[in-house]
Amino acid sequence: MGLEDDMIPDEPEENPDVPKLSKKARKARDKLSVAELKALVKRPETVEWTDTSAQDPRLLVHLKSYRNCVPVPNHWSLKREYLSSKRGMEKPPFELPKFIRDTGIMEMRDSVKEKEEAQTLKSKIRERVQPKMGKLDIDYQKLHDAFFRFQTKPPLTMYGEIYYEGKEYETNLKDRRPGELSEELKEALNIPPGAPPPWLINMQRFGPPPSYPSLKIPGLNAPIPAGAQWGFHPGGYGKPPTDEYNRPLYGDVFGVLQAQAPTQTGEPVEKTLWGELVPEEDGSSSEEEEDDEEEEEGDEEFTEGLTTPSGMDTPSGMVSAVPSEFEPVDGGFELRKRRDGTETEEDTVQKSLYTVLPEQNIRAKGFFGGERAYDISKATRTDLPVLGQEDRKRKKPGDIEVTLDPSELENSDGLSSEAVKAQYEAQQEAQRRESQGFQEDLSDMIAAESRKRQKRDEENAKRKKDKYRF
After folding, report:
1. What is the dihedral of CA 186, 190, 194, 195, to 10 degrees?
2. Cα separation of 238 and 74, whole Å?
């Protein structure tokens, strides 16, 4: 028991003079200030006043300093609801982009609306029943130029950019450059053209702004523009900042020094090409030549084995020359497919793209009568129908077609009834012969079909008889 009592650690003796701190007091004692936290991290601009109350402030600021890290929105700690400040504000109406407004569509719509308002009730009802189309016709070239030449992208948010209350009322400083004054600012400060800004006098007295050490300011560390004068009169550039020996304090304010090449600071930049391809060695070409020589020697040995001592070639069946199908003809190859044995008589006949019809002079008849006619019978393609002469109606049984030559109608006073009757009888006889020949050709097929039908009827009758036997 004595050994066990010796191994029990003694309780730390409390100093009665030092008061015992609570957990909240100890946390407030060990808490870093914003200035101390900014001095400990690499990027102090990311430190906020709430970061000091984190469990590990340095780790938090280190994570916030990472590239492409999206910050937490500013309204996370607000007591009121999100966007509650815009509750009573009027939402602006939608506005068309400028490249669409330039087409003149808004003026056309306004004019159409004015006409509609001036209409009576009866015309409005008629317009609703029978609307008129094409009221807003815009030139196609204007539309093409608007959407393919003058179209601009709408304002988009960048990566990690989050909207917060009042963001649209802030001034966008991304397009602003230090030292460049806009026309609105010059007009607000009442600066005449060519005059310096009013804070140039204080810059000459106290020095350039320390946040922009390389900024060139005329009258301070750069020469004044042409036509300007030194002095304190309206539009003057004050007094150049010099020392007791009349030497410029902040830069070449008189423009007498020569421009020097910028000196490089830091390690020199290595400009050697690191991704250049290594040139091929000549050994590969020599190896290819050796392979070609070996192949040629092998071919010679192979051909020597195919010859007899008498000098006559053996029928080995192998051809060393290029096949006749791929032999060049007149210095070129025939790339088209060969159609040996597949050509018909129609393919062998040379086809023409068009046919010249002979022209005839005729006597004009009627109000729209022509003076020229063409002989259509000379056309080579008789299988194609002529426009307007194809039979669009279904033929009835017994109809007979009779072809008349228009030249006969023009040369004579007209065909006689006997000539038309003779052509009709000749065409009717030809049609009758054709139908008879067609019936004679189908006689065998008709007889075979009748025999099949008779046999099928006999089988059906026998099947019915067997069915009702019992």
Report:
1. -110
2. 45
CA neighbor of 69 nearest in space, from 196, 187, 162: 162
Please report the pLDDT score of residue 157 as a whole number.
84
Report the chain (470 residues): mean pLDDT per 10 consecutive residues. 54 64 86 93 92 93 91 84 84 90 90 88 88 83 92 87 83 84 92 92 92 90 90 91 90 78 69 72 58 58 48 49 48 55 54 78 73 72 56 59 65 66 81 66 80 92 76
CA 323 to chain centre: 50
Side chain identity, residue 24: K
Whether 68 and 159 have beta carbons less than 8 Å apart is answered as: yes
C-alpha to C-alpha distance for 444 and 446, rounded to whole angstroms:
5
Write out the chain in H/E/C secondary structure: CHHHHHHCCCCCCCCCCCCCCCHHHHHHHHCCCHHHHHHHCCCHHHCCCCHHHCCCHHHHHHHHCCCCCCCCCHHHHCCCCCCHHHCCCCCCCCCCCHHHHCCCHHHHHHHHHHHHHHCCHHHHHHHHHCCCCCCCCCCHHHHHHHHHCCCCCCCCCCCCCCCCCCHHHCCCCCCCCCCCCCHHHHHHHCCCCCCCCCCHHHHHHHCCCCCCCCCCCECCCECCCCCCCCECCCCCCECCCECCCCCECCCCCCCCCCCCCCCCCCCCCCCCCCCCCCCCCCHHHHHHHHHHHHHHHHHHHHHHHCECCCCCECCCCCCCCCCHHHCCECCECCCCCCCCCCCCHHHHCCCCCCCCCCEEECCCCCCCCCCEEECHHHCCCCCCCCCCCCCCCCCCCCCCCCCCCHHHHHHCCCCCHHHHHHHHHHHHHHHHHHHHHHHHHCHHHHHHHHHHHHHHHHHHHHHHHHHCCC
Under a CB-based contact definition with an 8 Å cutoff, are residues 410 and 363 in contact?
A: yes
Entry pTM: 0.34
Q: Which of 131, 134, 136 is nearest to 103 (CA)?
A: 136
Answer for the pair 75, 164: CB distance below 8 angstroms, yes or no. yes
Residues 209 and 242 sit within 8 Å (Cβ to Cβ): no
Return phi, psi of residue 329, to 5°: -110, 120
Residue count of the chain: 470
Give the Cβ contact number of residue 74 at 10 Å: 13
Position 26 scores a pLDDT of: 86
Q: Looking up tokens 């052509």, which residue turns up?
A: 423
- Cα separation, 57 vs 35, in Å, equals 13
